[in-house]
Every structure is written in structure tokens, then in C-alpha cells.
Amino acid sequence: MSFPAAGFPAIRPRRLRRSPAVRAIARETSLESRQLVLPMFVREGLTEAVPISSMPGVAQHTMDSLRRAAVEAAEAGVGGVMLFGVPAVRDAIGSGADDPDGILNVATRALVSEVGDALVVQTDLCLDEFTDHGHCGVLAPSTGSGTDPVIDNDATLERYVAMALAQARAGSHLLGLSGMMDGQVAAIRKGLDAEGFTDTLLLGYAAKYASAFYGPFREAVDSQLEGDRRTYQLDPGNRREGVREALIDEAEGADVVMVKPAMSFLDVLREVRDAVQVPVWAYQISGEYAMIEAAAANGWIDRRAAVLESLLSIRRAGADAVLTYWATEAAHWLRER
Ligand code: PBG
């Protein structure tokens, strides 16, 4: 019998998997620490960091522990940090958001002076941490007839512009527009430019879905929210609508657009990547973090391998950068490799 015998495979893709060296040169997608952004929580009035029980390894920071964690992220080679503030007092319009002495703005100034040369210091721009009702916008005087709250979109835009100016004045390099109000990118860009902040980058949370995986985040920011955000965040069944939102944000002047959550919306991520020209980032959210941590804690999966595979998958689907609570740890792992 001659070799190869009839019927033997002439095409052998396995050749590209034959050794670590061949696999390394054949790998299509790379993961680098500079592509990771670390979300961080800072809570007003804390004297000691408070662990978030549903996110093992993540804490609400004091100003001091925030600075230390940001320095550690910078030293590990992480690309940026995204700051969330948890104020001591909340009200109907989220006054703490645009107060220069509000926790988020104070923390931003501290981080910009500490690590501003090494990291892209980014701030969440949304009212939900600052409102007593926990919604991302201000409520209309009439709450309507149904069970859905009525968010006053255009009144909220005014609050967002005030918040954007406060964050830009605090030195934030990039504002993360996560509130999902119509016209937010255009309104904030115009407001910033009018005050001379033409260099402040805007990240449009274009395709932000109403997801069950935000659960642990609500603990992280002591959320007061009752009900849900389905009148402003996207329905998880909608793919085209996510692409449409990304195109709108790009047209309104977003420097970067976001798809969020990441792992349950990888198809949307791929399509948005193909549809726009600006960088596309994805947010691996609290529930995605909790899910892997819980399985790993039970010994059901290999923690490090699962984390790195999840990040690589998000990159493969089209994310230019990934917001992840594992950013610093993953950056250390990538350095070891
Ligand atoms: C809104 C905001 C949320 C998250 C980031 N920004 C919560 C929400 O929309 O309910 C969630 C992040 C996460 O779950 O890790 N300011």
C-alpha cells in the first residue's frame, strides 16, 4: 500500500498546532496588558477598604487604597483605570456628580496627579451612583401610568454636561458615557468644547444591554435602584439595535464606542467592530467576573486559564481593549509568560 493511502487527509490543519513554537507563531489574536482597563470603586468617608462579597478580590476603596491599587495597575502595565464614585449622600438629581468636592471628582484629581502620566485615567459619567432613586437620569415630574419610571432624557443631558465639565476640570482623560440617554455624546462633546476641553476623550457606551449580569455591581456601588433600566438600556434580544447605537455614537463624535456586557454579546461586538472605524472596547462586567470566580472557588475550572481565555475571546470577537476587574492580575500573568 502506497502512502498516503487513498482517503488519508491531504490537508492537515493540525500541523499548525504541532508545537508550542508553531502555535505561538500561528496565534491570530494577542492579549497585551496595555489593552486592559481596570474599573475601580472609591467610596466617600471610608477609613478602610470594604470587600465586595459578590466580587471576591474587588473592594470599595478608600482614597489611600485607591491610589495604591492604581499605582500597582500602572506598574503592571495596565492601560487605564475607570473610576466609579460612591457618595455618602444622594439626592434626586445626583448633585454629588458635578460637585468639584464630590467623591468621584476628588478621587480623579488624586489619581491624575499620582498616575496620570502612566495610565489613561477614566471616569464613569452617569448619575446612578449619585441619585437616591438609583436611575441613570433624572425622573420626569410625572412617573407615568405604567410600571416603568419616566426618565427625562433632555433634562438628564443637562446634568450630564455639568458632570462632564466637573470631570474634565478634575483632569479626567476620558469620560465613560454609560447612561444610555439619547444624544449624550453630542451634548457632552458640545458642552466640553465650548469650555475649551477639546482634548477630553469620550467613550460612548453605545451598545449597553439591560443585563442580569450587572447584579454584583449594584452591591459595589450600594445601588438604591428598584426595578430595572429597560427604558434606556438595550433589550438583550437585539443585535441590529446595538450596531445602530454604535453608528449613532460614532457620528455624534465618540472617540471610542463600547459593547457591554462582553461575554453574552460577543456577536454584537464583532458586528460593531466591523461597522465603525473608531476603537471598540468591551466591558467584562461584574457578573462575568463573579461567575468565573465562583466556579474557580469551587474547583470546577482552572481560574487563571479561564480568565485569560475569557479575555482572549473578547479580543478575538473584536474588542481593541477590555474593561476587566482582573486587569492588574492578568497583566502580571501576561508578563510571566
Ligand atoms: C452605570 C453602570 C453600571 C455598570 C457600569 N456603569 C450599572 C448598570 O448599568 O446597572 C455595571 C458594571 C458592572 O456590572 O461591572 N453607571
From TrEMBL:
<dbReference type="GO" id="GO:0005829">
    <property type="term" value="C:cytosol"/>
</dbReference>
<dbReference type="GO" id="GO:0004655">
    <property type="term" value="F:porphobilinogen synthase activity"/>
</dbReference>
<dbReference type="Pfam" id="PF00490">
    <property type="entry name" value="ALAD"/>
</dbReference>
<keyword id="KW-0460">Magnesium</keyword>
<feature type="binding site">
    <location>
        <position position="286"/>
    </location>
    <ligand>
        <name>5-aminolevulinate 2</name>
    </ligand>
</feature>
<keyword id="KW-0627">Porphyrin biosynthesis</keyword>
<feature type="binding site">
    <location>
        <position position="218"/>
    </location>
    <ligand>
        <name>5-aminolevulinate 1</name>
    </ligand>
</feature>
<comment type="pathway">
    <text>Porphyrin-containing compound metabolism; protoporphyrin-IX biosynthesis; coproporphyrinogen-III from 5-aminolevulinate: step 1/4.</text>
</comment>
<dbReference type="GO" id="GO:0006782">
    <property type="term" value="P:protoporphyrinogen IX biosynthetic process"/>
</dbReference>
<keyword id="KW-0350">Heme biosynthesis</keyword>
<comment type="similarity">
    <text>Belongs to the ALAD family.</text>
</comment>
<feature type="binding site">
    <location>
        <position position="229"/>
    </location>
    <ligand>
        <name>5-aminolevulinate 1</name>
    </ligand>
</feature>
<comment type="subunit">
    <text>Homooctamer.</text>
</comment>
<keyword id="KW-0456">Lyase</keyword>
<feature type="binding site">
    <location>
        <position position="245"/>
    </location>
    <ligand>
        <name>Mg(2+)</name>
    </ligand>
</feature>
<protein>
    <recommendedName>
        <fullName>Delta-aminolevulinic acid dehydratase</fullName>
        <ecNumber>4.2.1.24</ecNumber>
    </recommendedName>
</protein>
<comment type="function">
    <text>Catalyzes an early step in the biosynthesis of tetrapyrroles. Binds two molecules of 5-aminolevulinate per subunit, each at a distinct site, and catalyzes their condensation to form porphobilinogen.</text>
</comment>
<feature type="active site" description="Schiff-base intermediate with substrate">
    <location>
        <position position="208"/>
    </location>
</feature>
<feature type="binding site">
    <location>
        <position position="325"/>
    </location>
    <ligand>
        <name>5-aminolevulinate 2</name>
    </ligand>
</feature>
<feature type="active site" description="Schiff-base intermediate with substrate">
    <location>
        <position position="260"/>
    </location>
</feature>
<dbReference type="InterPro" id="IPR013785">
    <property type="entry name" value="Aldolase_TIM"/>
</dbReference>
<keyword id="KW-0479">Metal-binding</keyword>
<dbReference type="GO" id="GO:0008270">
    <property type="term" value="F:zinc ion binding"/>
</dbReference>
<dbReference type="InterPro" id="IPR001731">
    <property type="entry name" value="ALAD"/>
</dbReference>
